[in-house]
Amino acid sequence: MSAGNGCKCDDEAELRRGPWTLEEDTLLIHYIACHGEGRWNLLARCSGLKRTGKSCRLRWLNYLKPDVKRGNLTPEEQILILELHSKWGNRWSRIAQHLPGRTDNEIKNYWRTRVQKQARQLKIDANSTMFRDAVRCLWMPRLMEKMGPSLSPAANLNPNSCLLDHGALQLSTPPPPPPPPAAGLLSPDLVQLVAYDNSRSGYELLGSENCSPCISSDSMAVSQLPSMPEFSASTPDAFGSCILQVPHNLLPGGHHINNAYGLHGLGAPAAPMSASGGSSVGSPAADYSVMGNSFVENFADCLWSMDELWRVRGLHDWEN
DNA sequence: AATACTTGCAACCGCAACCTT
DNA sequence: AAAGGTTGCGGTTGCAAGTAT
User: Fold this and answer.
1) Nearest to A56 by CA among A67, A39, A42, A40
2) Is A286's pLDDT higher than 50?
3) Where is the Myb-like domain (predicted)?
């Protein structure tokens, strides 16, 4: 460990930083093959690498180690991450222990880039109960669908444990406190909904058995929505969700809420609604008049369910 | 085609816990 | 027991690649 043990002890000022080169990787792999893992500072000094022990350790564990799995996380792994994070929070290394071949860094990146993005789109704090509800009600069922019939035991979750379920509501903890103004309140004139592409040819807001209390049991085609200037939709994300913004004044029967989520469908992401749109639609005005009645009718059902949900949860007073 | 913007991920940093002497 | 060194964790940053305008 000392300067006199035969190691190449270079001036610390020459330590390299930044991306690793192929030569450095080769050197590190070769050294570990000969001497094994651990003792990272010694490794750094004696391998000829002008890196800190910390940097060597990180490169090995996160990238070079043979059992590190590359490629996208499977739906099973994603479910596991969501579930374990809801249990343990940001304990990345602990979570990683349950996903063989995946590193804490990878899981942390997944959470930050995918999951927190979802929270931002929903305008919900990623650590809030409300967001955990959304995860359980929206993503987990979708991921399970992607997994098909081969549900792994670890991911054998009961979607009906969704906190949005009426039964669960009655039995479980008191309603969560109203979210802070920034988390959930929209402009007084708009309602936001999360919708999923359900058919690749359009968008559909669907009833879901998993989250039946929070949505209408009817489904409704909204593939023509983009042709209506009153509505806007965000670009669908990696999970296929997009945010619809709908003017309050289009809602019949005085039903109005400030935030809604829980509209659940199936299928892969597709082009933004504004890009492909409905198949046989004419001018925006004509489209709306043609399909308007049935759409609004079902939409109202859906919103009523959401409205009821918030009332049950004691959140009604965060309406304007 | 060029530029601006967004996204995903590898790598770094600070800190705390653990280990060795 | 204490001090110094090492390791591991979680948060953050920087950059290359991809996408939108």
Assistant:
1) A40
2) no
3) 12-64, 65-115
Work out if A313's Cβ lies within 7 angstroms of strand C.
Answer: no
pLDDT at position A65: 86
Q: Is residue A3 part of a domain?
A: no
The whole model's pTM is what? 0.54
Q: In what order do the strands lie in the sheet with A203-205?
A: A220-221, A203-205, A190-197, A241-247, A232-233
Helix, strand or coil for residue A204? strand
Query: Is pLDDT above 80 for A97?
Result: yes
In a shared domain, residues A42 and A101: no
CA of A92 to C1' of B18 (A): 19
Which residues, 6+ apart, have CB-to-CB distance to A238 below 8 Å?
A114, A269
Same domain as A259, residue A200: yes
- Spatial distance from the CA of A109 to the C1' of C5 (Å): 30
pLDDT > 60? residue A287: no
User: What mean pLDDT is reported for chain A?
Assistant: 53
Three-point CA angle A176, A315, A85, nearest 5°: 35
User: Residue A114 pLDDT > 70, yes or no?
Assistant: yes
Query: What SS3 state is found at A74?
Result: coil
A183 in a structural domain: no
Separation in Å: B12 C1' and A79 CA: 29
